[in-house]
Amino acid sequence: MGADEKKPFLSPYDFIRIARSASLAALRAALGSAPPLPRPLELEDRTLASAGLTRFIPALHGTVLDLLAIPAEEMPPPEPSETFAAYGASLAAAFSARRPPALAFTDRDALGAPRRTVHTAAMLAEEADSASFLFSGRRRVLCAVPLLHSYGFVFGLLIPRRLRVPAVDVPPSPALSGHPLQKGDLAVLFPQLLKVLTAPPPPDAALISSSSPPLEGRYFKTARSAGYLSLAEIYGTALTGSLGWRKTGGPYELFGHFIRKGEKSILRPSTGTVLASSRLLWRRERHFSRYEGQDEER
């Protein structure tokens, strides 16, 4: 990373974005939907109270601490009079003091039970470096995925930061309401939004979507027919991180921080972790299918 190695893993502004994402999650959980919040830059000097979050502070603070793997006793909740900038600075200090700093993402296992998976900052940085080539030529990133999600965190926050590309958090509306696409944009989406997306693309706009199960091959053709430069699909989970990618309905290519190990396993050399799956089907040395027959062109 050269000079970037001396920079902190996250900036205070990144923590404002994370706090905003947690605020929206707390509002949705309590109210069923989240009223609009100002953009992160507009929140810096706003207090939690002036943003209408006073009664939601325990929930949003708990969500942030869970994500940043900071024990509650190490950082009490902020006062309603605290600004987002001050809160972000406090979070940055508490996170940096952890050894090693890490994030904990929550998803569900095969039986539907909540599962908490911890990834160190070094692991996430390795993942971001491995996937950053997918952002080549991008001038701006529109992220419609919560930063609390491992996919949103890496592709909507970490990679843009490392590449010094502006990133904008947008609501997951089909038309990307209030944020028209510009030339050189990259939109980071969940499949649910991809399937109903109506935002008209300018020249050179591209898409990245997560997947589970694999997207049908027709979505790649539809994206190109609609005028998008490309659609990249990322396969992975909160447990594994990003495993592979593809830009057609064919097999996935394994990201560079993994290597194949036998017929059903993948090794992450930097951690020694072996990920095994009975559903992997290797097509070539570094190309695999998630479910046999389901991720072919059609």
Notes on the protein architecture:
The protein is of the alpha/beta class and 298 residues long. Helices cover 29% and strands 22% of the residues. The protein is built from eight helices and 14 strands. The chain has helices spanning 12-31, 40-43, 57-68, 84-96, 121-131, 150-163, 191-194, 218-226; strands at 102-108, 114-120, 140-143, 167-169, 185-189, 206-211, 231-237, 241-246, 252-254, 259-261, 265-268, 273-276, 281-284, 287-289. The strands form three sheets. Strands 4-3-5-6-7-8-9-14-13 form a nine-stranded mixed sheet. A three-stranded antiparallel sheet has the order 10-11-12, with no helix packed on it. Strand 6, helix 8 (218-226) and strand 7 form a beta-alpha-beta unit. Helix 5 packs across helix 6. The longest helix is centred in the N-terminal third of the chain and has 20 residues, at 12-31. The protein is globular, with a radius of gyration of 19 Å.
Concise account of the structure shown:
By secondary structure, the protein is an alpha/beta fold. It has eight helices and 14 strands. The chain has a nine-stranded mixed beta sheet.
The biggest beta sheet is recorded as: 9 strands, mixed
Query: Judging from the principal axes of the Cα atoms, what is the shape?
Result: globular
Using the CA coordinates, give the radius of gyration: 19 Å
Q: Give the topology string: H per helix, E per strand.
A: HHHHEEHEHEEHEHEEEEEEEE
Overall strand count: 14
Percent strand: 15-25%
Please give the count of helices.
Answer: 8
Mean pLDDT reading? 91
Strands ordered across the widest β-sheet? 4-3-5-6-7-8-9-14-13
> Which secondary-structure class do the elements indicate?
alpha/beta
Share of residues in helices: 25-40%
Separation of the first and last Cα atoms: 40 Å
Regions with pLDDT < 50 over 5+ consecutive residues?
Answer: 1-5, 292-298
